[in-house]
Specification:
about 350 residues, alpha/beta, Rossmann fold, Hypothetical Protein Yjia, Chain: A,domain 2, 2 domains, seven-stranded parallel sheet, five-stranded antiparallel sheet, 12 helices, globular
Length: about 350
């Protein structure tokens, strides 16, 4: 039977980045990648470094709650396609959960579903944790604690952004939740470790998913291309004024006709990077938000910042019109409210 690995971790922890790192290794290049995202549209499958024919995107929703049946159908369909030669003969399955997924029901499905059990066995669960925000996430989110509690291996990401005391706090919290899990940084991981992880028989029979109150997801789109200055201004203001309630912001922006991936975790803005080509025919800016206690319309109003010009007139004085647009855009971030 083929080995299956669940890659889980809270929102913005770096699961897709880890997948891309793993898929660069020749021993993992022939993997089937199954991705689940919470939101109206998916983004991660567009930037994962696997051949398109070896990537499956599950429909919108939390994998642990709604679509385990679709997971079974997806895996069984991929296996049939492999058997018939319709897709390359993948040798391993990597399942990336949504950031709000409880991995226990997923593992339960892999172990106990008879149709999947004919060709797959659950080999390991890898949990990625954000060294910068991990301690707070473990305190405030049941999902983050469950993701750590069932892990065989916990990988610390963004350690370069976290103070040593913060990293030590996260490590101590993980050791309390799951003293059996090995802890490494992402940079320390040799993909060979995946082959050395051998899970004990998975015996958890029941699990009920519970999501933290006040969390919602939505996708916003913008029809017109934006300038680099406008995008930088919007990201900076968004993180500055609303960072505490932004669990995750991820999407593809049309920057002067070119596709750029944007990625924000609370107040941390990852440098946008340009994709080699548009992954789909739709070239609008599309951004997925996972937020706590923020209104969709409040965020949508901040798109007024996209009207900022990329350059200012070559004069020595203040451009009053440009400054007025900046002030108006900034005020939307200050006044945009939370849920009623």
């Amino acid at each position: 039977m083929l080995p299956a690995t669940i890659v889980t971790g809270f929102l913005g922890s770096g699961k897709t980045t880890l997948l891309n790192r793993l898929l660069l290794d020749a021993r993992l290049a022939r993997s089937l990648v199954v991705i689940n995202e919470l939101g109206e549209v998916g983004i991660d499958h567009l930037i994962v470094a696997a051949p398109a024919e070896n990537v499956r995107l599950l429909s919108s929703g939390c994998l642990c709650c709604r679509i385990r049946g679709e997971l079974v159908e997806t895996l069984a369909g991929a296996w049939r396609a492999r058997q018939s030669g319709a897709v390359p003969a993948f040798e391993r399955v990597l399942i990336e959960t949504s950031g709000l997924a409880d991995p226990v029901p997923i593992a339960h499905t892999l172990v106990n579903d008879a149709s999947v059990g004919k060709f797959l066995h659950l080999e390991s669960i890898i949990t990625v944790i954000d060294a910068l925000y991990g301690a707070s996430q473990l305190v405030h989110h049941d999902e983050a604690r469950k993701q750590v509690a069932v892990a065989d291996l916990v990988l610390h990401s963004k350690t370069d952004l976290a103070a040593p005391a913060d990293s030590a706090e996260v490590r101590a919290a993980i050791a309390q939740l799951n003293p059996l899990a090995e802890q490494l940084t992402v940079s320390e991981l040799d993909p060979q470790r995946l082959f050395a992880l051998r899970r004990q028989p998975f015996t958890i029979l029941q699990a009920k998913a519970k999501h933290s109150i006040g969390i919602r997801s939505f996708v916003l789109s913008h029809d017109e291309p934006v300038s680099k200055t406008a995008l930088a201004t919007w990201l900076s203001m968004l993180a500055s004024f609303k960072g505490a309630d932004l669990l995750r912001v991820k999407g593809i922006a049309n920057v002067e006709g070119e596709p750029y991936v944007i990625d924000v975790v609370q107040s941390v803005i990852h440098e946008p990077f340009r994709l080699g080509s548009w992954p789909a025919a739709d070239r609008r800016t599309a951004i997925v938000f996972i937020v706590r206690n923020l209104e969709r319309k409040a965020i949508e109003r901040t798109f007024s910042a996209f009207a900022m010009a990329d350059t200012l007139p070559a004069t020595g004085g203040l451009d009053a019109e440009a400054y007025a647009r900046f002030r108006a855009a900034a005020e939307t971030f200050v006044t945009s409210g939370a849920f009623p």
